[in-house]
């Protein structure tokens, strides 16, 4: 669990400094995932690493009940204020939770699990595998797990300060874990893989390269 506290403190101070660090608009992943979620009749979504909620609001405004969690108390606090302000409390539940601990939900509780750039944080492969297994547990049979991670074609792959296997700490102080398609296939054990596809997320300084992964709990 190296870096557990420094990364969490770093997210807290980042969100204190900027009310919309990733912008106000939904991510590319959320926009691309919405039609898939609708086609599968998804009504309840668990979002991991929700940050300041840009995708949470998007899903909630598109008719889904979202349970959003993050270990950043600052992000969650800002989200709770927004839930109250926007009167979204009947469709959005926000929780502080470190996702390395078991998810505090019963089996088969959600139609979908969603996360953008969450599994690409400073987690070992073993931790990612365990968290993906716990996501499968809380999904109903046939439920979807859609997530994104930075990939090995990203301009920051292999750059900056090494922090363990396939992880580097960038100049902004964030540790990022990069994934090959092969590793993602290995990590999908117990799921049916619907697709793994590359997409770009432009940011002011450079364009991130990510994989979108869509998994289905069999049954
Ligand atoms: C790259 S940000 C993405 C935020 C959001 N998904 C978005 O795209 O706007 C990753 C988020 O994961 C959260 N996070 C990192 N490690 C976590 C953990 N162990 N448990 C819960 N959240 C975590 C961070 O606090 C941060 O908000």
Topology:
Blueprint: H1 4-17, H2 28-39, E1 44-48, H3 54-61, E2 65-70, H4 73-85, E3 92-96, E4 110-116, H5 125-138, E5 139-150, E6 161-162, E7 167-169, E8 175-177, H6 181-187, E9 192-202, E10 207-216
Parallel strand pairs: 1-2, 1-4, 2-3, 4-5
Antiparallel strand pairs: 5-10, 6-7, 7-8, 9-10
The structure holds S-adenosylmethionine.
Helix content: 25-40%
The class by helix and strand makeup works out as: alpha/beta
- Tell me the number of structural domains: 1
Task: Determine the N-to-C terminus distance.
Answer: 34 Å
Cα-based radius of gyration, to the nearest Å = 16 Å
Order of helices and strands: HHEHEHEEHEEEEHEE
How much is the average pLDDT? Answer: 96
Can you tell me about this structure?
The protein contains 6 helices and 10 strands; from the N terminus they run H-H-E-H-E-H-E-E-H-E-E-E-E-H-E-E. It has one domain: Rossmann fold (3-Layer(aba) Sandwich), CATH 3.40.50.150. Strand 9 and strand 10 form a beta hairpin. The relative contact order is 0.15. Helix content is 31%, strand content 29%. The protein is an alpha/beta fold. The strands form 2 sheets. Strands 3-2-1-4-5-10-9 form a 7-stranded mixed beta sheet, with helices on both faces. The protein binds S-adenosylmethionine. S-adenosylmethionine binds at residues 11, 22, 27, 49-51, 54, 70-72, 75, 98-100, 116-118, 121.
What is this entry, summarized?
This protein is α/β, with parallel strands linked by helices. It has six helices and ten strands.
């Amino acid at each position: 669990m190296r870096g557990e506290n420094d990364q969490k403190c770093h997210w807290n101070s980042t969100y204190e400094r900027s009310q919309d660090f990733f912008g106000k608009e939904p991510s590319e992943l959320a926009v691309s995932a919405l039609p898939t979620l609708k086609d599968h009749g998804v009504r309840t979504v668990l979002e991991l690493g929700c940050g300041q909620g840009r995708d949470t609001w998007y899903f909630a405004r598109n008719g889904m009940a979202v349970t959003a969690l993050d270990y950043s108390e600052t992000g969650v606090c800002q989200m709770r204020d927004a839930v109250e302000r926007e009167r979204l409390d009947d469709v959005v539940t926000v929780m502080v939770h470190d996702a390395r601990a078991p998810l505090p939900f019963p089996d088969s509780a959600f139609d979908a699990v969603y996360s953008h750039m969450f599994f690409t944080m400073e987690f070992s492969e073993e931790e990612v595998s365990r968290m993906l297994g716990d996501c499968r547990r809380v999904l109903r049979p046939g439920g979807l797990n859609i997530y994104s991670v930075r990939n090995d074609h990203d301009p920051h792959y292999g750059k900056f300060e090494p922090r363990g296997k396939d992880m580097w700490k960038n100049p902004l102080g964030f540790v990022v874990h990069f994934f090959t398609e092969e590793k993602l296939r290995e990590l999908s054990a117990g799921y049916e893989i619907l697709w793994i596809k590359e997409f770009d997320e432009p940011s002011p300084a450079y364009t991130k390269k990510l994989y979108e992964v869509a998994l289905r709990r069999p049954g």
